[in-house]
């Protein structure tokens, strides 16, 4: 154990945790204006089409700023915290960074992107041995054999990375979800005294705040791009699996029996949207699961008349509510918790549509009443 970890664990160096956050924040704020200028100068921008929710050309290289901010923090902190854990993560991020930049500029085939994601995930799984070792009794399943554990952990990595990529279709949505999820994990890791993982969470939070500032800007707007969605999605997957692994290996941990349920609650929105969009595309529309369309949950919320920031706010509130419900029910059996998470999540993310339906019906009834009044007035006038 090094001296910085000792200082923090003794309760005398909590303020030191602000350093990685501030370093990522300042690095990103400095990087984004330069990236935006270069992207416009070299025409490395997204041209709006019929699927776009924007009307102007926008740079798509926001992931570069996010990557550099996070990579600088993790590289510097790796010398003082758990280098064995952080260095493989940095190596995996470098792989995803170059794949993402090539895809944002030249377009990369889905197979090559998937291969890169698999290599990056396996690098972290095999070197750090961070993996899901048991299903914690969910559906009666307990321990998992070693190779099956590696395969399932790899599947979870790829699922979360691509689920996060699929929600990147609205100003502020992907950035806000990434920020919220990392805040949740940062709080949990800090309470678990896992300072290395807390630094990972804070670094991502610090990088995403400047991104959201420019992502919402009308003058100097920038998109996350595939670089950003893969880098952020990978870090969210890493935090999720690390949270499950640490709790499963410690019988005295607060979330020893329900860590996978907590992760499901935290990531409920991107996982729900991915499952729903795959069902709509494959089963209903008979299309390729990765074919682009406007059937995402956030697209339907826009159709309700909500603005971009309002959709992001609704999804953030719903996600927080699902996590709170899960934490309140953590003393129940794991399968009951699973049922409650699914029910709470479906209810919270369906609520805006139920409210809109109710308002729509009231408007119809009001219009009918006004028509009756007008007819009555006309008949009396005659």
UniProtKB/TrEMBL annotation:
One BP term from GO: lipopolysaccharide biosynthetic process
EC number: 2.7.8.-
Subcellular compartments: Cell membrane
Species this protein is from: Formosa agariphila (strain DSM 15362 / KCTC 12365 / LMG 23005 / KMM 3901 / M-2Alg 35-1)
Transmembrane segments: 15-39, 60-81, 87-106, 118-138, 144-165, 172-190, 196-216, 228-246, 258-279, 311-330, 336-360
Keyword S-adenosyl-L-methionine attached: no
Example of a GO MF term: metal ion binding
Keywords from the UniProt entry: Cell membrane, Magnesium, Membrane, Metal-binding, Transferase, Transmembrane, Transmembrane helix
Residues engaged in binding Mg(2+): 165, 226
Cofactor: Mg(2+)
Enzyme class, broadest EC rank: transferase
Any one cellular-component term (Gene Ontology): plasma membrane
The keyword Ligase belongs to this UniProt entry's keyword annotation: no
Membrane-topology descriptor: Multi-pass membrane protein
Name used for this protein in its record: UDP-N-acetylglucosaminyl 1-phosphate transferase
Signal peptide: none
Upper lineage: Bacteria, Pseudomonadati, Bacteroidota, Flavobacteriia, Flavobacteriales
Tree of life domain: Bacteria
Main location as per UniProt: membrane
């Amino acid at each position: 154990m090094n001296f910085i970890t000792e200082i923090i664990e003794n309760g005398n160096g909590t303020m030191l945790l602000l350093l990685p956050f501030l370093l990522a924040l300042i690095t990103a704020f400095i990087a984004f204006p330069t990236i935006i200028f270069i992207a416009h100068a070299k025409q490395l921008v997204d041209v709006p089409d019929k699927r776009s929710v924007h009307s102007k050309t926008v740079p798509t290289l926001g992931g570069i700023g996010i990557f550099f901010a996070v990579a600088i923090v993790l590289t510097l902190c790796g010398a003082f915290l758990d280098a064995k854990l952080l260095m493989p993560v940095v190596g995996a991020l470098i792989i995803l960074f170059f794949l993402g930049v090539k895809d944002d500029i030249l377009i990369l085939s889905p197979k090559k992107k998937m291969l890169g994601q698999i290599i990056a995930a396996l690098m972290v799984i095999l070197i750090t041995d961070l993996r899901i070792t048991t299903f914690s009794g969910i559906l009666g399943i307990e321990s998992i054999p070693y190779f099956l554990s590696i395969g399932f952990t790899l599947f979870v990595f790829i699922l979360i990375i691509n689920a996060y990529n699929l929600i990147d279709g609205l100003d502020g949505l992907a950035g806000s979800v990434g920020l919220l999820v990392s805040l949740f994990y940062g709080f949990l890791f800090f309470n678990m005294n896992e300072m290395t993982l807390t630094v990972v969470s804070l670094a991502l939070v610090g990088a995403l705040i400047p991104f959201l500032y420019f992502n919402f800007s009308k003058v100097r707007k920038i998109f996350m791009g595939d670089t950003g969605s893969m880098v952020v999605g990978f870090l969210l997957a890493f935090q999720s699996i690390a949270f499950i692994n640490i709790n499963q290996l410690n019988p005295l941990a607060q979330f020893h029996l329900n860590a996978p349920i907590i992760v499901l609650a935290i990531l409920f929105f991107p996982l729900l949207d991915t499952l729903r969009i795959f069902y709509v595309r494959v089963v209903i529309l008979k299309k390729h699961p990765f074919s682009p369309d406007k059937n995402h949950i956030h697209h339907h919320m826009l159709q309700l008349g909500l603005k971009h920031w309002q959709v992001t706010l609704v999804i953030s509130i719903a996600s927080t509510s699902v996590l709170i419900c899960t934490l309140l029910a953590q003393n129940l059996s794991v399968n009951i918790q699973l049922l409650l998470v699914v029910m709470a999540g479906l209810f919270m993310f369906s609520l805006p549509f139920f409210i809109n339906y109710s308002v729509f019906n009231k408007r119809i009834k009001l219009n009918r009443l006004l028509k009756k009044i007008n007819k009555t007035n006309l008949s009396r006038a005659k």
